[in-house]
Specification:
The protein is an alpha+beta fold. Helices cover 45% and strands 22% of the residues. It has 14 helices and 19 strands. The strands form 4 sheets. It has a 5-stranded mixed β-sheet with strand order 5-9-8-6-7, with helices on both faces. A 5-stranded antiparallel β-sheet has the order 10-19-18-15-16. The longest helix is centred in the N-terminal third of the chain and has 77 residues, at 123-199. It is elongated and about 145 Å long.
Length: 573
């Protein structure tokens, strides 16, 4: 339904207002909403008559599914109105009744009837006034109740004020305790995180470099680490505050400033002559024997909070332990690496056979393990080449590796094929160390015989490159690991060699990766070996070994030792 009125005079406006009220009543608009609509429309129409011209009032009813209906009122200036171009005035009210067949918008032309209709249109206003009267009476009732309540409130005001003061004091105490707890939690969190950073490295220089990054700028404005036995010339020429010297001599933290520090467990000293205006906190780096050095800090502000100073002293103690442990580790690592290098033998010069070996320790731990290689002659003139791997790392594995190598050389004096030698090593290891195992592969060459004999025990298969560039993986059935509680006889395998053939013996650290396994690594090794020309291998076997390692060890971090032995067969001379 849509109704439209042209409004030019006051009479037109009155008829439109009456028609709007009747239609709103016909559509079931509540009296309050009808009154609001009529009053707003009257105000708008009065403004329209003041502006002049012809205006158009449109009433449109629409249905909203599930929500009843809506009655929309729109006042729009026509083209001849003075306010032409202004945005229309709109108002919408809800219609509980159906919007399809309502009627009641007709207004008679007779002035008497018009006047009667205008008076009838104010019935909604009377209803609203009745409701307003009821509300005024209700407000008066509640005002009296409120007055009586206020009397009691006034009487309780003194008690509430006292209770409020007590509550504020309790809140202040709770806030202070919460802040102290939060500060303590912050310090403990920082101490834990900083300790994790310091102990993550086993390089004492790296730990010293990390200290300023941890403390500046939150807990210190500057940090100086004085290590007594540091070999760096830069630290030897650096002057140190007198308080740092006292801390080094007494082993107690010292506070140098022109005012008392009031820090627990810290002795006060006069200000430093190097920088009299800046307070200094000098904390020794303690160990079980003697201090390693002194940590000197300047505060981020005027002075330190006592709790922060206690936390800094504890952090210094932990840093000292980390530096001491790192130095011990570096010392043991150097010893272990020297021992490992001493256990690796020099390769013999053999007619008709070129040898090149590479050994790289793991980048984690003590850099010592059970990987080994060896090459030596037997009494009949043949050459034994071997690569092995003892399970585990550390000095124990290295010592066991040395014993296996010595035992193998002793057994080889009596002759015997590679399979027989591995069988004897298996029995030797099983009786000597029942809880330790090893893998090994042995290849035997004879300068006058183009046949190579080899055997393996739990070891990755040898890779053979023939002179024409083809590559074979010698994966004939190997024996089980050496030392396992099982009686076994390890078989020999033979393969004919042509001059220019190259055999690669290696340990699993060269080809095995946790995410990929060992087979893809063996394929990469075979591809790398097959990419060489025979002339390259014959002319520079050492350089070829380096070029094989580079693509297979592209990452700098190694969890296991790496051993590679290249045997290039030149043939009888």
């Amino acid at each position: 339904m849509m109704r439209t009125w042209q409004i030019t005079t006051v009479t037109d406006a009155a008829r439109a207002r009456i028609a709007t009220a009747r239609l709103a009543a016909a559509y079931g608009v509540p009296p309050l909403d009808r009154t609001r609509l009529a009053a707003s429309l009257s105000t708008q129409l009065r403004q329209c008559l003041t502006k002049g011209g012809t205006w158009e009032l449109t009433l449109e009813a629409s249905a909203v599914p599930g929500e009843g209906g809506r009655l929309h009122a729109v006042v729009t200036p026509t083209r001849d109105a003075c306010a032409a171009g202004e945005p229309p005035w709109r108002m919408t009210v809800a219609c509980p009744e159906s919007t399809e067949a309502a009627d009641g918008g007709g207004v008679p032309e007779d002035s008497a009837v018009l006047a009667e209709a205008l008076l009838g249109a104010d019935e909604d206003t009377a209803v609203v006034l009745e409701k307003l009267t009821e509300q005024e009476q209700l407000v008066a009732f509640h005002r009296e109740e409120l007055h009586q309540t206020n009397q009691g409130v006034v009487a309780l005001h003194a008690e509430l004020d006292a209770a409020g003061r007590a509550q504020r004091e309790a809140f202040a105490a709770e806030r202070k305790a919460r802040n102290e707890a939060e500060n303590a939690r912050r310090r403990l969190t920082f101490l834990a995180d900083a300790s994790a950073v310091l102990t993550a490295s086993l390089n004492h220089d790296e730990i010293v470099r990390r200290l300023p990054d941890l403390l500046v700028p939150e807990y210190a404005d500057s940090v100086d680490v004085w290590l007594f036995d540091n070999d760096d010339d830069r630290y030897r020429a650096t002057p140190h505050a007198a308080a740092a010297v006292v801390a080094a001599r007494t082993g107690r933290p010292q506070y140098a400033a022109d005012h008392p520090g009031g820090l627990p467990g810290v002795d006060d000293q006069p200000p430093s002559a190097l920088n009299p205006t800046r307070p200094l906190l000098c904390i020794p780096l303690p160990t079980r024997r003697a201090p390693l050095g002194v940590l000197t800090l300047s505060p981020p502000g005027e002075r330190w909070d006592p709790d922060d100073a206690v936390m800094l002293i504890e952090l210094t103690r932990r840093a000292s332990i980390a530096i001491d442990n790192a130095r011990r580790f570096e010392h043991n690592r150097d010893i272990a690496e020297t021992l490992q290098r001493a256990l690796l033998t020099d390769l013999p010069a053999t007619p008709g056979l070129n040898l090149a070996a590479r050994y790289l320790p793991a980048t984690h731990g003590l850099n010592i393990g059970g990987d080994w290689y060896d090459a030596f002659r037997q009494p009949d003139g043949s050459v034994i080449t071997v690569v092995g791997d003892v399970t585990g790392h550390g000095l124990h594995a290295a010592v066991m590796m040395s014993q296996l190598r010595t035992a193998l050389r002793a057994y080889a004096v009596d002759g015997g094929s590679p399979g027989r030698l591995l069988t004897r090593l298996h029995m030797f290891l099983h009786h000597l160390q029942p809880d330790l195992y090893a893998t090994a592969v042995i290849a035997r060459f004879h300068p006058d015989d183009p046949t190579m004999t080899w055997a393996a025990a739990g070891h990755p298969p040898p890779v053979l490159r023939t002179p024409d560039g083809r590559v074979r993986i010698l994966d004939a059935k190997p024996g089980a690991m050496l030392g396992i509680p099982l009686r076994q006889e390890i078989d020999d395998h033979t393969v004919r060699l042509s001059p220019g053939s190259t055999l690669a013996l290696y340990t699993d650290g060269l080809v095995e990766r946790r995410a990929l396994g060992i087979d893809p690594g063996i394929e990469r090794l075979a591809a790398a070996l097959g990419g060489f020309r025979s002339a390259e291998l014959d002319a520079d076997l050492e350089g070829s070994a380096n070029r094989i390692l580079h693509p297979l060890l592209s990452d700098s971090e190694r969890d296991d030792d790496v051993c590679l032995l290249l045997c290039h067969f030149r043939g009888p001379e």
